[in-house]
Amino acid sequence: MTTLFARIFRQAKVTFEQANAERFLSNLQNLRALMDQLTLDDLNLDPAVASQETFQVPIKAPCTFIDIYENNCFTMSVFVLRENYTMPLHDHPRMHGLLRVVAGSVKIQSFTEIDRREEVRNGDELRHVLVSVEQERVISAGKAECAMLTPTERNFHEITAIGGPAAFFDILSPPYNADIPVYGKRTCSFYRKLLLPGDGANNDGRKRMVLEKIPTPDHYYCDTEQYDTPEFMLAEQINQNTEVIYRSIQPNSLGVIDEAIDRLEALVTDVKNQLATAKSSCFAGNQSRSVAFWRPWRTAI
């Protein structure tokens, strides 16, 4: 684990916390500049996680998900894709996102919504979206700046590993399940592409198409890898939970205070157990590999 990842973590907090909204754009550029330097080694991940040998195991899922961090403002995670596997086309409603390839190479095809839809609040489901087709990008580990999406640009995409397995680290804000003002909790949806008559080109020459919402594709499922959480993240989790506990304390309520102390002690014990588990874990072979398959965003992408 390097200090660069700690700096990225701290910068993400500064960037996405609402208290710093006035400096959001400059903070976002600072975060992007740091992300452009990130490597697999900075994340303390074994290169074997993105090796051909790993994906030759018969029961191996086509995608591995590594959950790194989540709070109410942003999430951090790593996805590892099998060679030639495409993460299905999906959306990122009302989100900013940064994606850094840390192993192998990926091809990213992004789409931008045209005449941005009003968010549906009455329970009706919007099934078709008119989009413009962005230029396809090929990004290799350590050789290009990270990809970025915003609430209004490149907020639909599909990602394919090319030339071998590939891994990418991403930061998304706000998380899918975050309850944000006006829009509430957003879900991520999957889509298929529908061609328009001709080539779909508009007067500006940009190709257009329609995206149709579909159920989660059957081929998309993930297994998981346990992440060796760095101490600076564990300390932050303790701080967050401590703040929640203190907010719940009512004046002159000794019973609530005693309960809060018990919760805090249990939290500290849990963190100690996580550290002990992390120190004894080994990424080599299949010892830390989960046998359970998981579909990201299944309960809500």
From TrEMBL:
Could you tell me which InterPro entries the record lists for this protein?
PCO/ADO, RmlC-like_jellyroll, RmlC_Cupin_sf
Q: Does the keyword Hydrolase apply?
A: no
Gene3D superfamilies referenced in this protein's UniProt entry, alphabetically: Jelly Rolls (2.60.120.10)
Record keyword Oxidoreductase present:
yes
Q: Which CDD domains match?
A: cupin_ADO
Source organism's superkingdom?
Eukaryota
Q: Which UniProt keywords apply?
A: Iron, Metal-binding, Oxidoreductase
A cellular component annotation (GO) from this entry: mitochondrion
* An example Gene Ontology molecular-function term: metal ion binding
The region annotated as signal peptide is none
User: Pfam family of this protein, just one?
Assistant: PCO_ADO
Indicate what this protein is called per its UniProt record: AAEL009221-PA
